[in-house]
Amino acid sequence: MAQVMELTDELASLGLFADLERPQLEAVAHAFEEVWFGDGERILREGLTGSGFYVILEGEVAVRSGGHDTAVLGRGDFFGEVSALLGEPPSADVVALRRMRCLHLAASALHDFLLSHPAVTYRMLLDQTRRLRTTTRARG
Amino acid sequence: MMAVTVTRTRSAGSTRPGAAEAGDPRPFPPGEYPLVIVGSGPGGLQLSYSLRRAGILHAVISADPGPGGMFRRWPFFQRLLSWTKPFAPAERGSRAYERFDWNSLLAQEDENRALMAGIMDGTSYFPSRPEMERNLTEFAERTGVEVRYGCSWEATRRESTPAGERFVLQTSDGEYRCRVAVFAVGVAEPYVPPTPGLELAPHYAATRPAETYAGKRIFIVGKQNSGFELANGLLPWARSITLASPSPAKLSVVTHSLVGIRARYLQPYEDHVLAGGVNVLAASIEGIERAGEGLRVTVRPSTGGEAVAFEVDEAIAATGFVTPLRDLPDLGVATYGSSRLPAQTPFWESATVPGIYFAGTISQGAAGLKKHGQPANSGAVHGARYNARLLAGHLAEKHFGATRQGRRLAAAEVAPFLVEEIGRAPELWHQRAYLARVVSLDGTRGIVDDGFVPLAHFLDSGGPDAIAATIEANGEGAVYPVLYLRRDGVAREFVLPDQPLNDFTTPTHRREVAAVVSEAGIDVDRGEVLGLPVG
């Protein structure tokens, strides 16, 4: 549980966890695992089973498909939820654009986590809705 | 395993640097060495052994008075969590036996293999701490691994010399200069979070003999293995035991991995669920304060609700350990996570300071893919020993001019070889979805067994067309082989079926492996691959 206090403070500043009280934030800090990626390192690999859900603490990633970057995500953003929830391999690579720290949760744990943290689930839904609107406008 | 041959004459340090100081019989006096290992636990010993076999001159220094690392002192209750089965499905001393022996280090000589099994007294398949210490001591003595004991690494700097960049390790004995430094110093520095009043709770590392807790109400901060180990050992002594940390306790039998409380320490948990008097709380600790002769602990349930205060006689902080990296972060070594592990490449090199490597339990900082959330076993001896052996080969190639001598395979040999590996290779069984056995289809070398590589390296570093074989697990109880076929730099995954007895040499597995081999373009009948004669 080393450094959980520091991580809890960091989580409190992220939109996804903005509605949680401190004991819940501490529980999140325990439930997720911090991971580190170097510049250019792949975090999600297109077509490979067993990926997870990630929340960015520091740094940026590119969503890369067919050699093209389709989105760039930064601090507070999350990724991997689609393949984690649908139980399918990712449909794109996610690549670190520079050194980055993330929180990681195994796909199998995401279901229970979202059910037990409805405020986080609501924030995720809001974010997904915004992404859907952006995509729809871009196509429209 | 993979043969590594040193093809270039050793340069600096081709003879042992520095004469032994007068009257000091210890090896490796301060001076310049091509490579320096810090640490004499399982990681340092395995790496030194494997480097010696590869012909790479190096020094090993350790602050301890003898081999063993953390096993010279812990686990507190003097019995390990890692088993060795004296009688197993595979013959003791064989390569396949390593799957059933989590504690012996790896040796090439028959007489130095599976040492742990010959030392245990038969009362448990978990060695006692003294038995483990003897296992490591015997390995060092029998294989001739030399260490300069009582030599404490104190500080680190970089220096430009006419011969190139050097790391300078300041030690209690003087300065060591090297091109490559490997730190195998464990994740062993006690950590106490800044919770108010936690200074009133001595760390796990300062736990007293169990009998001194007789009749006392004990509060343990932390619900990982160290917390449950203490609770288990104090069950016959304590008046009551309460364990608390913010998230629910994880159990290894539920996570299907080494993540979570191991079965050996589950007794307090059973006592809790049967309402026997042990309390296991998912709660954050708001503070600990003195109350008369004892302590008042205030916790707040993680699920919400009012804070709860209760009194105990003593508290213990089983709050974990961090990596004792001293001033390496000042040198630029990035760290992350709850154990302050150094960020590493797939080959265990600092991701931010080239030339600095890690071995032993610190190698878990190179996390790999963690498919299905399953970690590798790099935090334990049975995983880290393979990392260290691989690291020795990698260091020999990258820094000392060695070349890989992969074994040529005939086209007809490839599928049976891969089936044999997924059936028995301990490297794959212990380091699941982390280490892979690779057969390359190289335009110049033909079909070659390229040994083991980290799976992340295989998937992301490019290279010739190749097949990689792993054993993986889905976290829900299934264990199964996976093959990766890399063509034109892009890897595709082939998940093979699990099998009730974990036998992956069945006709079904042979058929599926053969199909992937065929997909790779290997024509078994014509003995060709990609139009190139092979075998």
Question: Hey, roughly how much beta strand do the residues of chain B contain?
Answer: 25-35%
Order of helices and strands of chain A: HHEEEEEEHEEHH
- Side-by-side strand order of the widest sheet of chain B: 14-13-12-11-10-15
General form of chain B: globular
> Which fold name fills CATH's third level, the topology of chain A?
Jelly Rolls
Regions with little confidence, pLDDT below 50 for 5+ residues of chain A:
none
Largest interface: A-B, 38 and 49 residues
**Mean pLDDT over the full residue set of chain A:** 91
Number of domains of chain B: 3
Biggest β-sheet strands, sense, barrel of chain A: 4 strands, antiparallel
Would you identify the CATH architecture of the largest domain in chain B?
3-Layer(bba) Sandwich
Please indicate the percent range of residues of chain A in DSSP E strands (runs of 2 or more): 25-35%
Distance between the termini of chain B: 19 Å
* Total strand segments of chain B: 29
Model description:
- The complex is a heterodimer of chains A (about 140) and B (about 525).
- Chain A is an alpha+beta fold.
- Chain A has a single domain, classed as Sandwich (Jelly Rolls).
- Chain A has helices at about 5-10, 20-30, 80-85, 105-115, 120-140, and strands at about 35, 40-45, 50-60, 60-65, 70-75, 80, 95, 100-105.
- In chain A, the strands form two sheets. In chain A, strands 1-8-3-6 form a four-stranded antiparallel sheet. In chain A, strands 2-7-4-5 form a four-stranded antiparallel sheet, with no helix packed on it.
- The radius of gyration of chain A is 15 Å and the shape is globular.
- Chain B has a six-stranded mixed sheet. A six-stranded antiparallel sheet of chain B has the order 21-23-22-24-25-26. In chain B, strands 2-7-6-5 form a four-stranded mixed sheet, with no helix packed on it.
- Chain B is globular, with a radius of gyration of 25 Å.
- The interface between A and B is large, with 38 and 49 residues.
